[in-house]
Design goal:
This protein is of the alpha/beta class. It is built from eight helices and twelve strands. The chain has a six-stranded mixed beta sheet. A six-stranded mixed beta sheet has the order 7-8-9-10-11-12, with no helix packed on it. It binds zinc ion (ZN).
Length: 261
C-alpha cells in the first residue's frame, strides 16, 4: 500500500491468528532515526525478533506506545524491551509503562486519544494524517465492547471525535491498513447504532432474556463470537439503562473475562 510508504509506516504482524485476532496482531513502526513502535504484540519470540530487527533497520526505537493492556497487544513488551533496550513505554495504565498517557498528551510523534469501549484504558494514536486504532477499530469485522461504566457512550463519543479529524491512513490492531479513515470510523459508529436500533426494537416487542435479545440483535454472529456479542449486549444494556431507555425485566448477561483475547 502506497500510503504506508508515504507516511513511513510498516506493519509487523504476529503469527497469532484467531477469531478475535483475525490474521494476527498488528504491530506498527513509524518514522526513522529513531522509529516509534505501536504495540509489542504477543510474547512470541520469532515475532519479537522480527519487530526488533525491523526497528534496528530504521535506526532504533524512540519509544513504544501501547494501545491497551490485552495480551495480544502488550504481552510481548518485556521481551521487546529485552531486545531493543530500555526505551520509554507509554500506555494508559500498565505495569511496564514508564510514561502514563492520557487523552490530549503527546508521546514522541504521537498524539494520544482516549478510546474506551473495547477496553476501559484503550488509547488510539495519531501522527500527522495516520491513526493507529488498536482494537477500537479493526481493518475487518467489528470489535466487542467490554461492559464497563459508560463504556459504550465513551466509545461513541471517541469515534465522533476521530471522525472529525483529517486523516488519510488507518492502521488497526488487526486486519489490513485502510485508506479513508473517516469512512471506516463512520461505519463503526453506524454499526453500533444499528445494533442499538435492533436491540431497542427487540425490547419493544417484549423480548427480555439475554438469549432472545442476542438472537434478535446479534443473530448473524458466528457461535464462536457469541460470548463477545454477549459482552457487547451488556454494554448496550448499560447504555440504555443510563439513558433511562431500558424497560423493566431486561436481562443483562453475566460476563466472563475476555481480557486476554
Ligand atoms: Zn487485539
Amino acid at each position: 500500500m502506497e500510503l504506508l510508504k508515504e507516511f513511513e509506516v510498516e506493519c509487523v504482524r504476529a503469527d497469532n491468528p484467531g477469531p478475535f485476532t483475525l490474521d494476527g496482531s498488528n504491530c506498527w513502526l513509524i518514522g526513522r532515526d529513531p522509529c516509534w513502535i505501536i504495540d509489542s504484540g504477543p510474547p512470541i519470540d520469532a515475532h519479537l525478533d522480527r519487530l526488533a530487527s525491523e526497528a534496528a533497520v530504521r535506526g532504533g526505537v524512540g519509544g513504544i506506545a501501547v494501545t491497551h493492556d490485552h495480551a495480544d497487544h502488550s504481552g510481548g513488551l518485556e521481551g521487546l524491551l529485552a531486545r531493543v533496550g530500555e526505551v520509554p513505554v507509554g500506555a494508559a495504565a500498565m505495569e511496564l509503562a514508564t510514561v502514563s498517557l492520557a487523552d490530549g498528551d503527546t508521546f514522541g510523534p504521537l498524539s494520544v486519544y482516549a478510546t474506551p469501549g473495547h477496553a476501559p484504558d484503550h488509547l488510539a494514536f495519531v501522527s500527522s494524517e495516520v491513526i493507529f486504532t488498536g482494537d477500537a477499530v479493526l481493518g475487518e469485522g467489528s470489535v466487542y465492547i467490554a461492559p464497563d461504566e459508560g463504556a459504550l457512550i465513551g466509545y461513541l463519543e471517541a469515534l465522533d471525535r476521530l471522525i472529525a479529524l483529517e486523516l488519510k491512513l488507518l492502521c488497526p490492531g488487526h486486519g489490513p491498513a485502510l485508506g479513508n479513515p473517516r469512512e471506516r470510523l463512520t461505519e463503526y459508529r453506524d454499526h453500533r447504532l444499528e445494533r442499538e436500533r435492533k436491540l431497542v426494537e427487540a425490547l419493544a416487542e417484549g423480548l427480555r432474556s439475554s438469549d432472545e435479545l442476542l438472537d434478535a440483535a446479534w443473530g448473524d454472529v458466528p457461535p464462536i463470537l457469541r460470548p463477545a456479542a454477549e459482552a457487547t449486549l451488556a454494554a448496550h444494556i448499560d447504555k440504555l439503562a443510563g439513558e433511562g431507555r431500558l424497560p423493566e425485566g431486561a436481562e443483562r448477561p453475566s460476563i466472563g473475562d475476555y481480557g486476554g483475547l
